[in-house]
Every structure is written in C-alpha cells, then in structure tokens.
What we know:
Radius of gyration: 23 Å
Largest sheet: none
Membrane topology: Multi-pass membrane protein
Transmembrane segments: 21-42, 96-115, 144-164, 171-196, 202-221, 258-282, 288-305, 312-331, 368-386
Number of strands: 0
Protein name: Arabinofuranan 3-O-arabinosyltransferase
Helix content: 55-70%
Subcellular location: Cell membrane
Strand content: under 5%
Structural class: mainly alpha
InterPro entries: GT87
Distance between the termini: 41 Å
Amino acid sequence: MSVMDRYLYPRVETPRILTMILWPISIMMIFHKSVILAVNGARTDDFTTVYNASLNFLNRQPVYAENYTTVDPHYLYPPSGTLLMAPLAYLNPDQARWTFIAVSVAVLVLCAYLLTRMFGYSAASWVFPAVVLFFFSTETVANTLIFTNFNAFVLLGMLAFLMLMRSRNDLWAGVFIGLTLAVKPVLAPLLLLPLLQLRWKVFVTAVGVPLLLNIAAWPLLVDARSFIDRTAPYLLATRDYYNSSISGNGLYFGVADWLVIVLRIAFVAMAIFSLWFLYRYYSRTDELLWLTTSSGVLLTTLFLCSSLGQGYYSMLLFPMLMTVFLAGSVMRNWPAWLAVYGCMAFDSFGSREWEPFGRYLEYNKVTLGWSLLMVVTFCVLLFRWLDLRAAADEGAEDGSDSPRPVAPASA
C-alpha cells in the first residue's frame, strides 16, 4: 500500500466499525426509551399503584384494599415487596418515578454488560453495544420503562443468580433470587436448577430472604391478612385482559376450556422433555448452555401455562437468546428468531384496512411468539435425541465400541 493509499483508504477492522456504528445508535435508543417515552408514560401505569401502596404503608393505612373488578393496574406485591418498595414514598411522586426510571435504565445497561461478560466477551467488543441496542429496541424493555415496572431488577437478580451458580457461590446465588422472590415470584421455577444438582445451600437464602422480609413486614402492615384473603386469590385467577398466557388468551377469545387444557398439557410435556435432555447432555459438559437454555424453557412454560403471562416478562429470556453465540444453542435457526420477534417486537399490528386480522395479530403476537419458541426448542432437542439414538444403534450394529456422544458438536 502506498503512502497516499494509507491516508486515502485507512484500514479499520470490522469489529471497530461495528462498535462505532452500534454505540451512538444504542445511546440514542436509551435516551428515547427513557427520557422521552418513559417520562411521557402511558395509560398503563404500574408505578403509581406501587407508590401509593408505599405511602399507605408508611402512614399505617391499608395497602391491599383495592377494587379488583376494574382493569386498572393493581398493587399485587406481598408484604416483603411492600417493605422493599417503601423508601420510594419518601420522595414526591414525580421524583420517585423519575428516579425509578433512571435506576432501571442503569440496571438494564448493567444487565447487558453482565450478559456480555457471562458469554466471554469484553466490554470493549462490539457485542456489548449490540446487546444494549437489542435490549432497548424490544417491547419488553420499552414497556418496562414506560409502565415503570420492577422487571429490570428481576432480570438483574436472575443474571446474578446464574453467574453465582456457575461460580459455586451458592448462598449468594440464593440471596439474589430470594430478593426477586420477595417482590415477584416469577423466578421461582429456576430453583429447579440447583435442586437437580442437589445444591441445598441455594435454598437456605433463596427461601430465607423472602421469609425473613415477610416476617419483618407482617406486623408493620395494618391489613397484612388481606394479602392472603383478597390479593392471593386474585393472583391465582385467570383474567382476560393484559394476559398473554394460554388461559388468558383463551378466555379473551372464548376458546373452549378443553382446548386450553390440552394446549397447557402439551407445552408442559414439551418442557419436561427439553429439560430432561438439557440436563442429561449439557449440565456436565456445558453448564452455561444448560443453565441459560433451561431457565428460558422454565420461564417460557410459566408464561404460557400459568394464570398470568404479560409480554414484558419476555425480558427474562435474554440469557437464552444470548446462547446463539454458543455451539449447541437452540437459537441457531430462523424460526427461533421469528418467535423472538413475536414476543419482543415493539411493532403494533393495529390495521384500519384489515381491522380483525390486525387485532388478532396484536393480541396474539406474544402468545404465538412464546409458543413458537417452545416448539422450536422442543423440536431441535428432539431431533438431536433421535440423531444420538440412531448413531448409537449404528455403532452397535458395526461392533464399534466408541463411547456414546454426550453432547452434539454443533447446532
């Protein structure tokens, strides 16, 4: 290369080009979703109910006295969550909400960093801004900020739990998942993972932290009993609004009860097979792939088959999506990413020309996305199991004594 060419056509490595492209776009996405959309807010407001409950708690007023027959957001956190949220009420409503949004954004960026490091990439790589950009382009992150919900902290607790599980810091792993359970029990299915490994120390703190917080909060609430008598039954009931679970979707569209039951059983069966296969073939050879994929299967099954599944819960599937960087990932195919589009896209399908069709897509996109993700995961693992069985049978027929493979070499 001549001296002139060196200055006219400076060489820049592709990773650096990607980093230069991704960071400014990512920063603007963060600014737009937080400073503009989140501060603007929306009709759905998860924060005001939390703030009012915190204020009532500090002023010794009833916390669980809402009218659950309305479709407005309700305060549903247990006494332990009320205790943890109470400091918000020391600020005025606007200050509290803006502070909560700002801390949530910082937590989401931290989560993107932790995911990047968990999968072996440095903060200087193009992967970090790519993960940040993906985060803030999704409906799950956007609506978590716009509705001002607690989900970002749940994701942080989940990532801390998975990372500490890998590093064998069992007591601390239990502390972080226990703190999320004290507010929202959505991560409870993940306790199956340490149970399969017989790591009992995790349960000491995972159960102990929310238990102690509830014991501390109970006498401070004037209507603690109402959480059990009124709020818990509401949480267990299926509602036909803001609910993307199979039962919620079926109730909204009038689907026959028997079909809803059959679908729920089918997805639970797919989850059982997937979890069995992942544990048998990956838990000892690739713990990162096992933990992240299994957590995704457990949570997607919960979203689909429980009484309540809301679209912005999809944030908790980010670790499973990051497995695309690993050999053996179930995410290395286009149907899996079509599923991700369904449950995470911020696009609206409301149509003036084709109103019924657009309405159907809008109300079903999250349910269809979760469902397709489960079907894809099940099919990928089922085909691998069939291939392993066929390979083992061929080895027996030709007299080969080669060991049975313990994990597929590639996706």
